[in-house]
């Protein structure tokens, strides 16, 4: 998260970007059969094509809509100017993963490599907002990075979503202090814990407050609808 708060003895003086239980609900159609009708919305004077969240639901929402659905690992991403924190959710367990000190294309490639290694099929990226819920200049920067990552992800049928991250850094600091982590550990792992809080917020709302980042390319949109390759570890031949 971008934050202008002073964090004495906790983080170095660089600016940061920062930042359910299943129930019985009617199943949604498979990705290949959903309605492909697009909506449009206007952001910063530009009309953009969108897909309803129910058409390409994030994993947390799909779990709520399909109680017997299994699969779908989520990678939380807390983008920063110098450091980017990652957290991972497999099943109902969310944990801090790592902190990357990369930027630009190298960062995006490394995030994709980690997602492949951890078998994640969606990215939950923190979107900076002000305390009153409004987007900022930093929000636009994050949207740009998320857009580039969405293009890479869509090639594999992976989805990218934006989630409000306001307050996750402060919550992460408090959690690490409560855990009794040393100052040096808190400094090293702050971004990863902020990504963890981001994922927890995402799951607490069943993914219903996320925003799908949609590539402009229609072929890539088709790959998103098709989804990632079938993981035979989760499905039997009879499914």
Automatic annotation (TrEMBL):
Residue ranges annotated for the YqgF/RNase H-like domain, each copy included: 72-172
Tree of life domain: Eukaryota
Residue stretches spanning the membrane: none
GO BP field: rRNA 5'-end processing
Protein name: YqgF/RNase H-like domain-containing protein
Keyword match Cytoplasm: yes
Organism for this UniProt entry: Vicia faba
InterPro entries, alphabetized: RNaseH-like_sf, YqgF, YqgF/RNaseH-like_dom, YqgF/RNaseH-like_dom_sf
A Pfam family reported for this protein in Swiss-Prot or TrEMBL: RuvX
A molecular-function term among this protein's GO annotations: hydrolase activity
Gene3D superfamilies, A to Z: YqgF/RNase H-like domain
SUPFAM superfamilies, A to Z: Ribonuclease H-like
Keywords: Cytoplasm, Hydrolase, Nuclease, Ribosome biogenesis
């Amino acid at each position: 998260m971008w934050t202008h708060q002073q964090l004495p003895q906790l983080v170095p003086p660089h600016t940061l970007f920062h930042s359910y239980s299943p129930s019985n609900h009617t199943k949604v159609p498979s990705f290949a059969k959903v309605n492909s009708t697009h909506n449009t919305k206007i952001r910063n004077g530009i009309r953009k094509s969108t897909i309803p969240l129910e058409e390409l639901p994030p994993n947390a929402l799909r779990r709520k809509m399909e109680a017997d659905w299994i699969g779908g690992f989520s990678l939380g991403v807390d983008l920063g100017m110098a450091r980017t924190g990652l957290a991972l959710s497999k099943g109902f367990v969310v944990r801090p993963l790592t902190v990357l000190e990369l930027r630009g294309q190298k960062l995006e490639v490394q995030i994709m490599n980690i997602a492949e290694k951890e078998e994640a099929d969606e990215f939950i990226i923190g979107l900076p907002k002000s305390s009153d819920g409004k987007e900022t200049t930093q929000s636009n920067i994050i949207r740009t990075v998320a857009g580039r990552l969405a293009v890479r992800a869509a090639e594999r049928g992976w989805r990218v979503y934006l989630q409000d991250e306001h307050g996750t850094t402060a919550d992460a600091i408090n959690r690490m202090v409560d855990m009794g982590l040393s100052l040096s550990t808190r400094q090293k792992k702050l971004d990863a814990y902020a990504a963890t809080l981001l994922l927890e917020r995402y799951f607490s709302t069943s993914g219903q407050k996320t925003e799908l980042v949609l590539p402009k390319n229609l072929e890539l949109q088709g790959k998103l609808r098709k989804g990632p390759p079938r993981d035979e570890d989760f499905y039997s031949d009879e499914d």
